[in-house]
Amino acid sequence: MATTTVAPVKRAVVQKLRASSPLVAAIVGGIHEAVAPRKVKYPFIVYQIVASSYEYDWTGMQIHALMDVSTYAVNPVDANNIDALIAGALNDAALTVDGQTSLLCRRVGDLPTGPDVDSEGKRIYQVGGTYSIWTDQRLGTP
Amino acid sequence: MIDFGAILQGVFEGAVQGLSQGAHVVAQRAKARAPVRSVFSGGGQGIRTKTAGEIEAVRSSRDSAFKAGGPPTVIRPEQLGQARIVTGKKPPTHWRERRLAAASKLLTQYDVEMSRRRAGYAPQKTMLSRRGAYEVRSGRANAATWEHLKVGGRLRGEIYATDPSVSGDHAEAWVISPTSYAKYQEFGTRHNAAHPFLRPAAEESRSEVAAMVAEAVRGALPHGATKVGIEIVVRL
User: Fold this and answer.
1) Fold of domain A7-34+43-138
2) What average pLDDT does range A72-91 have in this prediction?
3) Of chain A's two ends, which shows fewer C-beta atoms within 10 Å, N or C?
């Protein structure tokens, strides 16, 4: 059986975020990986894998991934509210990961980011957190 | 009589020593992962390892230079076709030009070349890339780190590990990137994707740091103590 990488983990996180209807209603600009296009409306979510290490044992493999999920909004209240919704959706969530068993999805820290100014001169607030995600998968016989 | 206090003290000092080594491992990994923008034209550092064919092509001259006590061969990319041997004890000129003192010279050369091109002359190579010229002009690329005074590589050059600070039975060491824009690289911004380098380095080094601390503790134990149960918590 072929092993799967961190890509299904990212898909599972996005699915879990999209399954939260208050969150989907709050984010006008959608969910983007790494960086959002320039003309996307606020607020929106950006996620990115920070690190993902593979731990092997005799029968299986665990992926230990760290993922940043940030909210960008034009006012800090919206940013913090959406960040709370993200934390509610992801913290201790059981993710549905293709080919893998979800072991852990937990917020392990906040991002120490402050307001930024975008290309139109608007003050943008970035609020987010780092999530530790562990999955397990069985290795096939060679 | 066994002095357990002295043994524990020795074990703790060993753990602190292991922690210090571990912090340097994390710092080295962070440096290797730190994003460095290409400031110089010609790609990378402007130096690459020669191919086997190029080495064979200059075998005789290299042998004679080596017998005369010459240094290793260094060839600039544009001279690779000629496979020239650089001898003498000083580093190549283009290495010296990458020092901080030469930043204005590099910029002048770039500006002169751009004026020439605008006037219709055939383009010639510049030391700085277009992005590099912008970085030098804005002062961002002029890095005065404690490694070297040089142009470029500031983020990487400034990463360092602190010595462990001990408080009671607790010791901690920090790996710090003091560069002002380090957090934008680590966490990303509205305009730029993140290029994390500190947290991945810590994650990759987790088991290695724990092993280093364990090894240092083992070394600090008295001879003959083979089975000891000690709980060590390494948080990264």
Assistant:
1) STM4215-like (3.30.2000)
2) 95
3) C
Per-domain boundaries in chain A: 7-34+43-138
Q: What pLDDT does residue B89 have? A: 47
Determine the 3-state secondary structure of B191 from DSSP. coil
- Which chain B residues touch A72 with a CB distance below 8 Å? 190
Q: For residue A129, what pLDDT is reported? A: 95
Asked whether residue B138 carries a pLDDT value surpassing 60, the answer given is yes
pLDDT at B157: 81
Contact yes or no for B23/B212 (Cβ under 8 A)? no
CB-nearest partner of A51 from B183, B189, B200: B200
pLDDT reported for residue B47: 42
Q: Is the predicted pLDDT of residue B111 greater than 50, yes or no?
A: yes
Q: What share of chain A is helix, strand, coil (3-state, %, to 5)?
A: 25, 40, 35
Cβ distance of B187 and A70 shorter than 8 Å:
yes
Q: Which helix (H) or strand (E) holds B15?
A: helix B4-33
Q: Which of B188, B196, B200 sits opposite A35 (nearest CB)?
A: B188
B46 pLDDT band, cuts 50/70/90, is: very low
Q: Which DSSP category does B222 fall into?
A: P
Please report, in angstroms and rounded to a whole number, the separation of the first and last CA atoms in chain A.
9
Paired tokens of A129:
């957190």
Q: Return d(Cα B78, Cα A88) in angstroms, integer.
A: 57
**Burial class, A42, CB count within 10 angstroms (exposed 0-12 / middle 13-18 / buried 19+):** buried
Of B183, B187, B190, the CB nearest to A118: B190
B77 pLDDT more than 70: no
| Residues 6+ away with beta carbon under 8 Å from B173 | B19, B20, B22, B23, B161, B162, B163, B164, B165
Locus of tokens 């296009």: A37
Mean pLDDT, to the nearest integer, of B68-94? 52
Unique residue bearing structure tokens 């149960």:
B229
Searching chain A, which residue's CA lies closest to the CA of residue B196? A50
